[in-house]
Write a structure and sequence with these properties.
Layout lengths: L26 H4 L2 H41 L2 H7 L9
Length: about 90
C-alpha cells in the first residue's frame, strides 16, 4: 500500500474590503447634502428614542422596587425576620 498524496489547494483570493469602494467615492459623496442631513437627523431621533425607552424602563424598575419594599414593610413576618435582634438599643 502506498501513501495517499495530499492535494494542495491554492489560498482563496480575498475581495477588496467592503468599506473601500473601487472608484474612491463614498456614500456620503454620492448622496446630496440634504439627504445626508435627513439621515443624520433620523439617526439622532432614533438614539433619543432609545435613550427615552431605557429611561422609561429604569423608572419602571425603580417603581417596582419601591412597591416591593412598601409591601415588605407591611409584612410582619418579613419585619420580624429582618429586624435587629438587639432590642437593648430601643430602650
Amino acid at each position: 500500500m502506498g501513501k495517499k498524496q495530499k492535494k494542495v489547494t491554492a489560498p482563496h483570493q480575498k475581495a477588496a474590503p467592503k468599506n473601500e469602494p473601487d472608484n474612491g467615492m463614498t456614500l456620503k459623496d454620492l448622496l446630496s447634502s440634504d439627504m445626508v442631513n435627513k439621515l443624520k437627523a433620523q439617526a439622532d431621533e432614533m438614539k433619543q428614542a432609545e435613550a427615552n425607552h431605557k429611561e422609561e424602563l429604569r423608572k419602571q424598575e425603580e417603581e417596582k422596587k419601591k412597591q416591593e419594599q412598601k409591601r415588605l414593610e407591611n409584612d410582619f413576618s418579613y419585619l420580624l425576620e429582618n429586624s435587629d435582634p438587639s432590642w437593648s438599643k430601643h430602650k
